[in-house]
Amino acid sequence: MAGNMQEILEKQRASFTAAMPEAMSVRRDRIDRSIALLIDNKDRFAEAVSADFGHRSVEQTLMTDIMPSVSAMKHAKKHFESWAKGEKRKPTFPLGLIGAKAEVIYQPKGVVGVVAPWNFPVGMVMVPMAGILAAGNRTMVKPSEFTEAVSEVFAEVVPKYFDETEMAVFTGGVEVGTEFSSLAFDHMIFTGATPVGKHIMRAAAENLVPVTLELGGKSPTIIGRSADKAKAGERIALGKMMNAGQICLAPDYLMVAKDQEDDVIENVKTGVSSMYPTMLHNDDYTSVVNGRNYERLQGYLDDAKEKGAELIEVNPAGEDFAGSNGNKMPLTIVRNVNDDMKVMQDEIFGPILPVMTYETMDEAIDYVNDHDRPLGLYYFGKDKAEESKVLSKTISGGATVNDVIFHNAMEDLPFGGIGPSGMGNYHGADGFKTFSHMRAIYRQPGMDVAGMAGFKPPYGKATHKTLAKELKK
Q1: Range of the domain at 31
Q2: Positive or negative torsion for Cα 33, 53, 350, 213
Q3: Residue 214 catalytic?
Q4: Which of 105, 172, 466, 470 is the residue whose CA sits 20 to 30 A from 298?
Q5: Who's near 463: CB < 8 A, 6+ residues apart?
Q6: Same domain assignment for residues 211 and 237
């Protein structure tokens, strides 16, 4: 559906305005319908994702797209009425003593635009949707053009559960996306690559649309000398190989003590081999999404090799990926990397894992701080002082200790980036607040407060008394 975006936006806004204030039961009903949409169509979505990727297992889509979306909806359904209660605030002294009252109420913003990526094409629409609907908004959705089959499922099933004045889906390529992102929404959330995020923000600026940007970047995984290397290797392998590394929070590169590099690499290889003894015809292992991304990733490897890196292919069964006519790739661990290599400049978003070494933890921390602030940061180790040092001396969107990615699975924690890795948060109560307007309300008592405080001309004794009191060190 494209071409009538402006018309649908106007319809949604008119419907939203006419319905104010909507009962909480309406929000609950929309959340229930979203849960039904996901569960009733879970198999269709999983088949569509696999078709778009060339291959992705049904189980993975159910685990990483459908289940987190349903979980987010259920969490919102359980808590949104308490989130929606106003907060009493203290009036500035002495107004509270003479009857003034201050509070914050949470109002829905109106119509929220959702621009979703291809890597988790269902979850990245429906997880933020939990906060959008819990806050009482209407919504328009632009799924990724790279996952065409998923987009078509959304376009077909959403009208069966929602009126177009509540939720509408628009499919299509770059032109549709450009038009969509230039609409005068009341808020817009974009999940995707940092360079595209800049275009989204530029388009939103024309209408002063507030944006939540969930971007990516190079999430470092720092392995302290005290880490359990076997556990670290297994958990890094799980995080890096899930969705073939096509995750904004995937461990992008490792930082390991120089004298432990071989040990860490062997443990990552063991972790990969135990989960994926074969890969090429293994239903559990996902394909790179398309030929364009496959060529991009191969380009990183060629560039790194040319510039002196050592490539270690983790291919437990010795399969012939090059002759497969598909886009599956084994994991390649890259040693002896430096910042001149593209693999250390761009977000990888695939099954490639560079390894950097450090002599001291300060060196590792300095490297992280000398680069763009990442979406995630991971630390493995048993040394609490070192853990505290890493967490207090670095800044990232979120962090997980002794694992990777899992801070994102905590619905009660805010999820979001900082700087080039994004802005704004969602999930749980934080998502509700992102998609709500915090409206300040002040109630003035009946007496002449302005006169008593000396705010009213002619300025005189009361004025000077207030100034003398407030302008003291």
Answers
A1: 5-215+423-437
A2: negative
A3: yes
A4: 172
A5: 454, 455
A6: no
The runs of H, that is alpha helices, within 62-147 are 67-83, 123-134
The alpha carbon dihedral of 62, 65, 70, 71 has a sign of positive
Decide: 332 and 312 in contact? Cβ < 8 Å.
Answer: yes
- CATH number of the domain where residue 163 is located: 3.40.605.10
Query: In 3-state terms, what secondary structure has residue 68?
Result: helix
Contact status, residue 66 vs residue 34, Cβ threshold 8 Å: no
Which one of the listed residues 164, 248, 261, 347 is annotated catalytic?
248
Which sign does the torsion angle of CA 281, 287, 292, 297 carry? negative
pLDDT in tens, 199-241: 999 999 999 999 999 998 999 999 999 999 999 999 999 999 9
- CA pair distance 116, 124, nearest whole angstrom: 6
C-alpha R_g of the chain: 26
Confidence of residue 386 (pLDDT cuts 50, 70, 90): very high
**Are the CB atoms for 437 and 109 separated by under 8 Å?**
yes
Residues 33 and 65 grouped into a single domain: yes
Question: Has residue 464 been placed in a domain?
Answer: no
Neighbours of 109 (CB within 10 A): 19
The one-character DSSP state at 288 is P
The residue among 223, 231, 297, 221 whose CA lies nearest residue 261 is 223
Q: Looking at the structure, tell me whether residues 240 and 160 fall in a common domain.
A: no
User: And the tokens for 281?
Assistant: 């015809």
Tell if the pTM clears 0.90, that is, is over it: yes
Residue 324 CA to residue 55 CA, distance in Å, equals: 13
Q: State yes or no: is 148 an active-site residue.
A: no
Q: Hey, is 126 helix, strand or coil? A: helix
Torsion angle, alpha carbons of 278, 279, 281, 284, to 10? 100
What CA–CA distance (Å, rounded) separates 398 from 219? Answer: 10
Instruction: Please tell me which residue in 148, 214, 261, 387 is annotated as part of the active site.
Output: 214
